[in-house]
Amino acid sequence: MVSMIANCMHGESHKAWMRATNKICKRKGLYRLPQISTDSLTDVLCQHLQYALHFGSIDSLDDVLKECFLDLGLFPADKKICADALLDIWVYVRKLPRHNASAILPELARRNLLDLTSNARESTTNQYGNASEVYFSQHDGTRDLALYFGHHDNILHRKRLVIERKDFCSLEKWELLRDTAFETQILSILTGPMDENDWYDMNFPETEALFLFFSSTEYFLPQFLKSMKKLKFLMIYNCGSNKAIVKGLDVLSSLTQLKSVRLERLILPFVEKQGIEELQNIEKLSLSLCEGFENISTFTKVQDFNLDHSNDSDLPFGICNMPSTLSCSITNCHQLQILPYDFGNMINLKMLRLSALPRLEQLPVSIGKLVRLEYLDISLCEGLKELPKEIGQLKKLRELDMRECTRLMALPSTVCELSSLKLVTCDETIGKQWLRAKNISILGLRVEFVEARFSLDWLDD
Fold first, then answer.
1. Percent of the chain having pLDDT more than 90?
2. What's the CA gap between 325 and 319, in Å, rounded?
3. What pLDDT does residue 168 have?
4. Residue partners of 441: CB distance under 8 A and separation at least 6
5. Distance from C-alpha of 67 to C-alpha of 94, rounded to nearest angstrom
6. SS3 state of residue 431
7. Across 46-50, 144-148, 359-363, 404-408, least confident range
8. Reduced to 3 states, what is the DSSP secondary structure of residue 54?
9. pLDDT for residue 55
C-alpha cells in the first residue's frame, strides 16, 4: 500500500507530500468514505486505505485536473467507455483545447485515478492518433470519491448532477422540484428501461452535456430535453448486451446548439429519424454498434464522423454529402463490401480510417480526389485485392497504415508519386515494394514492418 501511495504522489513537491501526509494521518472519522454499510472490519479498513491512497493524489491536483477528475463520477464504474466521450466534455463544456484535454487522460491514469486501454497501433503518431481507439474505466471506489467531492452543493445548484435508477423512486421529491430550474451544467442519468410516463417533468436550462446510460431493449427519451437549449454534447449509451430501440427522438429537434452526438448499441426506428435529421449544427457524430441509421445527408456541418461495429451492409445514405468533414473513421464493419463511388466528394478530408473491413475488396477510384488527405488507414482489410492507380494523386499523404492486408500483393506504379509520404506500416512482402518505391522517388520514406496481431479486445466491455 505504501508503494501505491508513493506511485500516486510521484513527482510532487515536498509541500504536497506533507499536506497529503497530514490529511491521511487525521482520524478516520473525519475523512470517512460515505455509505460504508459493511460490518467487516477488514472491509472498512480497506476502504479507508483506498481513500487515503487516492486522497493524496486528488489533493495534489491543480484546479483544471481536479475538475476533470470530478467529471469521472458522471460515468458508471467498471465499464469501458470510449475516451472520446470524456474529451468532448472537456472540449465543448470545459473549453479546453483538444490537445490539452488529451494530455489529461494519461496524467489521471498515472495517478491511478482511472485505467486506460488502447487499440491504437504503436506506430501511429500522436498527430494522427484517434481517441475513439482509447477506452477508460474506473473502479467503484474511485467513482464514489468523485461523487463525494463533487456533490456538496444543494441538488438544485450542483454543476454536475448524477441521477441513478433508485433516485426515481422518490416521487414526492421530484414532484416538489418540477417547477424549479436546475443549475446543472452536466447531467448524467443511469436507469433501466424507461417509458414515456416514467420520466418526471424537470427543467435544465443551463445543461451543456447530457449522458443517458441505461440497460434495456427499449428506451424512451425524456421530454425535458426540450428545456436544454444550451446542450452541446449528448451521449445515449445502452449498457445492455442487446441493442435497444430508442423512441421519442423528435425531442432532439429543439437542440439547436448541439455540437456532438454519441450513440452506442441502439436501433433507430425509421419513423423516428426526423428528430435527428433536423440537427443542422452537429460537428461530430459517433455511432457504435448501431443499426438503422439510413440517412445522414442533412449533417452538412459534420467535421468528425465515426462509424464503428455496424452490421449494415451499406454505409448511411448521404455520407459523401458532408463537405465539411475533416476526419472520417469507418471501422469493424464486417458486412460492408463496397464504398460509394462518390466517396471522393469528401474533398476536405485530412484523416481517413477504413480499418477492419474484411469484405471490402476495393477502394473507389474517386479516392484520388481527396487531395488534402494526410493520413490513410486501410489496416485489416483482408479482402482488399489492389489499390487504385488514382492513389498516386494524394500528394499530401504523409502516413499510410496497411498492415494485415493479406490479399494485397502488388502496388500500382503511381505510388512513386506520393512525394510527401513519410511512413508506411505493412507486412514484409508488400514492404519490399515500398522500399523499391523509396529508392526510386520517395527518399524520405520510412517503411515499418509488422507481424500479424490477432485481438478480440473489443469484445471486452
1. 49
2. 10
3. 66
4. 416, 417, 419
5. 9
6. helix
7. 46-50
8. helix
9. 53
- Which residues have a Cβ under 8 Å from the Cβ of 224 and sit 6 or more positions away? 199, 200, 201, 202, 203, 204
Nearest to 295 by CA among 304, 308, 285, 283: 285
Domain spans, the chain: 1-60, 63-152, 154-396+404-411
Among 114, 116, 180, 144, residue whose Cα is nearest residue 47: 144
Spatial separation of the C-alpha atoms in residues 400 and 367, rounded to whole Å: 14
Distances (CA, A) of 371 to 191, 268, 387: 46, 35, 16
Q: Could you tell me where the beta strands, DSSP code E, fall in 99-228?
A: 115-118, 134-137, 160-164, 186-191, 209-214, 218-220
* CATH-assigned architecture of domain 63-152: Orthogonal Bundle (1.10)
Q: Which residues pair with 82 in a beta bridge?
A: 135
- Give per-residue pLDDT as tens, 170-204: 656 677 777 788 899 999 999 988 888 888 888 99
| Segment 135-158 mean pLDDT | 82
CB contact at 8 A, 195 and 214: no
Confirm whether 63-152 and 154-396+404-411 share one CATH topology: no
Ordered DSSP codes for 368-414:
GG-TT--EEE-TT-TT-----GGGGG-TT--EEE-TT-TT-----GG
Give the domain 154-396+404-411 fold.
3.80.10
Q: What are phi and psi of 226, to 5 degrees?
A: -65, -20
Q: Beta-carbon neighbour count of residue 236 at 10 Å? A: 22
- pLDDT tens digit sequence for 248-300: 888 888 888 999 999 999 987 654 445 555 577 889 999 999 887 766 767 77
Which grid cell is 228?
A: 436544454
Closest residue by Cα to residue 286 from 123, 432, 130: 130
